[in-house]
Amino acid sequence: MTTRTGLDAQVGVAEESTVGTFVAPTDYFPFLDEGMEAVNARIDSDAIRAGRTILDSDDWAAGARTVSGSVALEARTKQIGMILKHTFGAVATTGSGPYVHTFTPGDLFGKGLSVQGGRPDAGGVVRAFTYTGCKVSSLTLSAAVDEAVKLDVDLVGQDEDTGQTLGTFSDPDAGTLFTFVHGALTIGGTAVPCESVSLTIDNGLQSTRHRLGSVVSTEQRQEARRTVTVDVVADFEDLVNYNRVVSGAEAAVVLTFTSGTTILAITMNCRTDGETPTVSGVEEIPLNLSLMAVGSTDAAAITCVYTNAEATP
User: Fold this and answer.
1) Residue 200 needs a FRET pair 20 to 30 A away by CA distance; which of 44, 124, 239, 305 works?
2) What is the Cα–Cα distance from 73 to 34, expressed in whole angstroms?
3) What is the arithmetic mean of pLDDT over 270-297?
C-alpha cells in the first residue's frame, strides 16, 4: 500500500559505465527533496501562411531537451562518498577499516550517474523518472546551529526516461547523521566560533551540449574554472580575521565533522574576503566571512578526506 504522497517517494543512484547509458539504481538515499526535471523546448516556424493568424500544426517541431535539477540530502557517516567522488573527480583509498578516502579535484569527463526518482501519483502508483548522464554541477555543504548537516547536490544530465522499471527500494545503511555538534572550523590554525558555515563547490560545467542529430545533450564538459567558496557567520572576537579581509591574506581553512571514528575533513587554502562588522541593534555583532579557495595546485586549494567504514566511495 502506498500513501499517494511524497512519503513513498524514493531516490536511487548508480554509477554509469558509459556516460548516458542507464544503469539500474544500486544505492538509495534518504533525502529531503528531489527536483530533477526535463525541459522540452519547441521550435516554431517563423514562416507566413496567407490567411492564417494562429500557428499551424505542421509549423512546430521538438527542440532541445535539457535535464537539470537538485537532490537535497543530509550528510551522514556512510554513503556520501559517491557524491564526493562525482563532485571532486579524483579519489584515492587507503586503510582496511576504517577506510580513508581522499578526494581531490580531477577530470569529470567520462564520469556519469543514473539518477532515478520514484514519484507517487494520485492513484498510488510510484512512477519512475530516470535521468541519465548526470554530473554534479555544484555541491553545497552547510551546517548551522540546531540542524543536521546538509548536502545540496545540483545536477546536469543528458536525458529523461519514464519507461524504465522502478528500482526496488532497499532501506540503505546510510549511517548516522552529522549535526552541528560534530562540526569544527579553523582559520589559520585557530578555532573559529561560528553560527553557520556553507561550503560550495561549483564545477563550471556546461548546462547542455547539444549537437546536430539529437534532441538530447551529449556529455557536458567543464567550460569554466572550478570555484570553491566558504561563507561563515562567525563571532566577532577580535581583528585577526577582519585584518585578513582588509589585506586579502590567504590562510589555511579546515572544516571538520567528527562522529566516533568517522571523520569528514575538508582542508583548503583560502583568500579571505568578507564584510566590515557593523551594529544593527543590541544583538551580538557577527563577523561575516567569505572565503575563496586558491592555491599552488588544485589539491593544495582543496582536499577532502572522508574516513569511514565503507571500502569504496
Assistant:
1) 239
2) 9
3) 94
